[in-house]
Amino acid sequence: MGVDVWISILISICAASTPLLLAALGELVSERAGVLNLGVEGMMIVGAVAGFATAQVTGNPYMGAVIAVFAGAAFSWLFAFLTLTLVTNQVATGLALTILGLGLSGMVGESFVGQPGIRMEAIHIPVLSDLPLVGQLVFGQDLIFYISIALVFGVSWFLFKSRAGLTLRAVGDSHVSAHALGINVIKVRYLAVLFGGACAGLAGAHLSLVYVPQWVEGMTAGRGWIALALVVFASWRPVRVLVGAYLFGAVTIAQFHVQAQGVNIPAQFLTSLPYLATILVLVLIARNRRLTMINTPSALGQSFVPDK
Q1: How many CB atoms within 10 Å of residue 125?
Q2: How many Cβ atoms from other residues are within 10 Å of residue 57's Cβ?
Q3: Calpha distance 267→272 (Å, rounded)
Q4: What is the fold of 3-295?
Q5: N or C end of the chain: smaller count of CB under 10 Å?
Q6: To 10 degrees, the CA torsion angle through 221, 222, 226, 227?
Q7: From CA 269, how far away is CA 266, in angstroms rounded?
């Protein structure tokens, strides 16, 4: 294969990895605050349909991305209200919201099925985008791609270099101790969950406005669950989430190129590769319990009721 083909493959990997990276980063912040949000898939699909519908109505894909962020945040607020204010079970609530998101998106998006989408075009930077080899790959991507990369370093700095990040991690490690120090545990967790929902909504917008610019019911296809596995795979570290997202993105793209080369492997097996990779990674991580426990927030998934 020529250089142009490899560049094209790398660009495809970036497009496939961006939704995973965004959703996983949002979930990472939520889990660092001690909240296990299994509703990522539902928030992604709500963001995808909200972004696509807004772009169709306004003719502006950037407006679609903005509305997708708010849609994901609104859906995450519902999760936060149920789990943090009403103190419902986080696992059951997350699963319920995923089912709700899939059903709601199917109903809202029914009239948009089959309509050609409005793609968010890649940004063209004079001179830089025209450079050989790296021009299109590094300086010719869409805006959401650049936001995802910026968020990796922004979240990393926030968690490990800022006072607010230290507070958030303290809440995730011991909400009782944090409360005793005067930290508003519920407020911190609300903000973390809202951020996670906004990231999931933007991830969904990337799917329907960039990766596959159209609306297809259930188009997230389990990416929210892969994002959840990525957080564990990365040991709750943002930079490792970046690496993991691109590894999974590469596996996703590999199946298409293997099929294009005419390799005699059942298409169903190739389609299942990203999910098989997810299971394999989780099994390997589970074997090293010490590594998993080092960075796992101690209060993850535990409800907190402040003293009256």
Answers
A1: 13
A2: 12
A3: 9
A4: ABC transporter involved in vitamin B12 uptake, BtuC (1.10.3470)
A5: C
A6: 90
A7: 5
Residue 204: exposure state from Cβ atoms within 10 A (0-12, 13-18, ≥19): buried
Q: For 40-67, what is each residue's pLDDT tens digit?
A: 999 999 999 999 999 999 999 999 999 9
Three-class DSSP category at 162:
coil
* Pair of tokens at residue 209: 């406005």
Q: In terms of Cα–Cα distance, which of 33, 295, 48 is closest to 169? A: 33
- Highest mean pLDDT range out of 4-13, 81-90, 294-303? 81-90
> Which two structure tokens, joined as six digits, stand for 161?
């270099």
Count the residues in the chain: 308
Q: CA torsion angle for 52, 53, 59, 64 (degrees, to 10)?
A: -60
Q: Which of 2-6, 54-58, 199-203, 225-229 has the lowest mean pLDDT?
A: 2-6
- Are 213 and 111 a contacting pair, CB within 8 Å? no
Axis-axis angle for helices 40-58, 61-80 (nearest 10) = 150
70 or 122, which is more confident?
70
User: Average of pLDDT values for 190-199?
Assistant: 98
